[in-house]
Design a protein that fits this description.
The complex is a heterodimer of chains A (575) and B (102). Chain A is mainly beta and 575 residues long. Chain A is globular. Chain B is mainly alpha-helical. Chain B has a single domain (27-98), classed as Cytochrome c-like domain (Cytochrome Bc1 Complex, Chain D, domain 2). In chain B, helix 4 packs across helix 5 (86-98). The radius of gyration of chain B is 16 Å and the shape is globular. The chains are: A mainly beta (575), B mainly alpha (102).
């Protein structure tokens, strides 16, 4: 035992020594193989690895000692309009993260010392005309570069060692279309993939791929109308042209099938007046492929390999774009688990997106009676006609889940995910898409938040079997947490809540073990990494996204006085 | 010379209150505008506080509202100056003042 310990220590010393020597210079040397190899010291892609677990195997911080967790360092990015919504990345002890206006930083992961910053000049006049803006939810690393998108429709490839611009590619005419990029890109196999905002906006919702080395566009997949006449036929009156769609959160890469899985956004207008006859009547007659779907695209060509449309003719803005993609192998089967914004969790066969199971995370839903767990068919769907809708619609337009990520812990097989219980009243109108002089939102209804039938609005962290949905435990929150969660090999689950408190729970039992206030609500990412042999937990704090806009009027304090233009990266460790 | 007078006539006939907003289209349908765009933040067609403030019974002056619609507010409301003419904004303000509970 003593012999093995000393071997480990000297090996660690060699590793630490070489890391300190290379530092920033090696930090961007990331490729798909390295992402798949998953050294727990790093966090190389948005969800940790392509498996999408949002999980760290590190256990230096664990259920036994987390009570001693304390602030190690912090960083304030500045100009944090709409808070701080991003997921940091770490490679070789260097932490990279983005703030609003695509401000991008590289910091020493152990001390917080700044290595470089990239502060792009955006089109301020355009930004002032946007709604879902100016946040950037993260970046990607690959081949010595850091990739970040902007709300004015550009994608940058930066030198990861210096922050200097290597290439800049304009992908969207945001002046005309109003939308750009708010999501993090995905690096996979020499390619950088990023999806446009779009669901509410009358365009065709493109997902782009560019060459990582040159920034040159490789392919584009239009989620509204897609790749074929057959898909366009699912939009009556050629409404795919103003169909919405998009794919505004990063998907994942499955090297076994050479595919990127991506969640697509909702069609436009959000609320239709078709009534039950949505296939032939209303604003966009038909199933509206490939909106509110999961699509698997060949990473080299962008060709559609297979797909499943989670919500045919989505009439509720419950897009497939927000959810993470979790690869789980169990009992000889390969699954892909994907939460739909409605709060229903879809479980697919990873080889072909055939539905294996569908289970509800939330209690309050009535947009359907249920979803058939064997086929994914919507049973008892609620389609509206023009005028005031009877009763309430559940869940609320902010969803049964939002884009904040859940976490899968491979040690205990549990999936940790925030569920949201809230509803709405609405009055549906016939609207006309506005595309001149620039595109405007096309909602299709006036609406208002409402309490669910069970009583007060609330949120909950569930610990569930990801395949069957069986619930192990649940922690309730008076207001839904809007940040991503993290689970670790130290038997911990970290939940950054909306009031501003970071909680740590026992991953097996849900017992709260530690908490600390970060000073402002959380609405971004959380990761764990190690630098210099020490484990850190890094979380972004800063409230102000779209769904959180309702918190002040709905809940009062602390949200009434909470700033919506502040943000800080908080980093914790043991002493 | 004739071309010069035509150009002059055009220059004086199109008021440039909003650079891009077409001056000769139909008057704006404000209830439809709310169901299309404004209602995203101004709940229940402007009757309730939501993502944005309640517009019904607003204490704000017409000048304040006009300025806010044209210029927006960073991180809160988009600038619609390029999309609406002064006549459009007059109609929106009239709609706001006429709002009653359901």
């Amino acid at each position: 035992m003593k012999h093995r310990l000393s071997m480990g220590v000297s090996a660690l010393a060699i590793v630490v020594g070489s890391l300190l020597a290379t530092g920033v210079a090696s930090a961007g040397q990331v490729d798909s193989a390295r992402i798949e190899a998953n050294d727990p010291a790093d966090w190389l892609t948005y969800h940790g690895t392509y498996k999408g677990y949002d999980y760290s195997a590190l256990d230096q911080i664990n259920a036994g000692n987390v009570k001693d967790l304390q602030v190690a360092w912090s960083h304030i990015p500045g100009h944090s309009t709409r808070g701080l919504q991003s997921m940091p990345l770490v490679a070789d002890g260097i932490l990279f993260y983005t703030g609003s206006y695509s401000r991008t930083f590289a910091l020493d992961g152990a001390t917080g010392a700044l290595k470089w910053s990239f502060l792009p000049e955006l089109d301020d006049a355009l930004v002032s005309r946007q709604t879902h803006s100016p946040y950037t939810r993260g970046l990607a690393l690959g081949e010595g570069k850091a990739f970040v998108g902007t709300v004015d429709g550009r994608l940058f490839g930066l030198d990861a060692a210096t922050g200097k611009v290597i290439w800049e590619t304009k992908l969207i005419d945001s002046q005309k279309l109003t939308v750009g990029f708010t999501g993090a890109p995905l690096y996979a196999k020499g390619t950088v993939i990023i999806g446009a905002q779009g669901g509410e906006w009358p365009y065709k919702g493109p997902i782009f791929a560019v060459d990582a080395a040159t920034g040159k566009k490789k392919w584009e997949f239009d989620t509204a109308g897609g790749d074929s006449d057959e898909a366009k036929k699912t939009w009556g009156n050629d409404t795919w042209r103003v169909g919405g769609g998009g794919g505004w959160m990063p998907g994942t890469y499955d090297s076994a099938t050479n595919a990127v899985w991506w969640g697509t956004a909702n069609p436009s207008p959000l609320y239709d007046w078709s009534g039950a006859d949505y296939k032939t009547k209303g604003a966009r007659p038909g199933d509206n492929l490939y909106t509110s779907s999961v699509v698997a695209l060949d990473v080299d060509t962008g060709k559609l390999k297979f797909y499943h449309q989670e919500l045919p003719h989505d009439a509720w803005d419950f897009d497939s774009a927000p959810g993470e993609f979790i690869s789980i192998d169990r009992d000889g089967k390969n699954y892909m688990v994907h939460p739909n914004k409605s709060g229903f969790i879809f479980v697919y066969d990873r080889s072909n997106a055939k539905v294996e199971n569908v289970w509800p995370l939330i209690t309050n839903y009535n947009f359907v009676k249920t979803i058939d767990p064997k086929t994914g068919e919507l049973i008892g769907r609620k389609d509206f006609t023009e005028g005031k809708a009877d009763g309430i619609l559940c869940p609320h337009i902010s969803g049964g889940v939002s884009w904040n990520s859940g976490s899968y812990n491979p040690k205990n097989g549990l999936y940790y995910k925030i569920g949201q219980e809230w509803c709405m009243t609405l009055t549906v109108s016939k609207t006309t898409p506005v595309t001149e002089p620039q595109a405007q939102l096309n909602i299709g209804a006036d609406f208002k938040i409402a309490k669910p039938p069970t009583g007060e609005i609330y949120g909950h962290l569930d610990a569930r079997d990801p395949i069957t949905g069986a619930k192990k435990w649940e922690v309730k929150f008076p207001e839904p947490p809007m940040a991503s969660v993290l689970s670790t090999g130290g038997n911990l689950v970290f939940v950054p809540d909306s009031r501003g408190t970071l909680h740590a729970y026992n991953a097996d039992t849900g017992a709260e073990l530690w908490s600390h206030s970060d000073g402002v609500g959380h609405q971004g990412g959380i990761i764990s990494y190690s630098a210099g042999g020490k484990q850190f937990i890094a979380v972004t704090a800063g409230f102000g996204g779209m769904a959180s806009d309702d918190f002040g009027p709905t809940f009062g304090e602390p949200y009434k006085s909470m700033p919506r233009d502040e943000g800080v990266l908080m980093v914790y460790s043991l002493k | 010379m004739k071309r010069f007078f035509i150009l002059l006539a055009v220059a004086f006939s199109s008021p440039s209150f909003a650079d891009d907003a077409p001056a000769d289209r139909k008057p704006i349908d404000v209830p439809q505008l709310f169901a299309t765009t404004c209602g995203w933040c101004h709940s229940n067609a402007g009757r309730a506080e939501g993502k944005g403030p309640q517009l019904m019974n607003t204490a704000r002056s017409d000048d304040f509202i006009r300025n806010r619609i044209k210029n927006g507010k960073e991180g809160k409301m988009p600038a619609f100056g390029a999309s609406f003419s002064d006549a459009d904004i007059d109609a929106i303000i009239a709609y706001i003042h006429a709002l009653k509970p359901e």
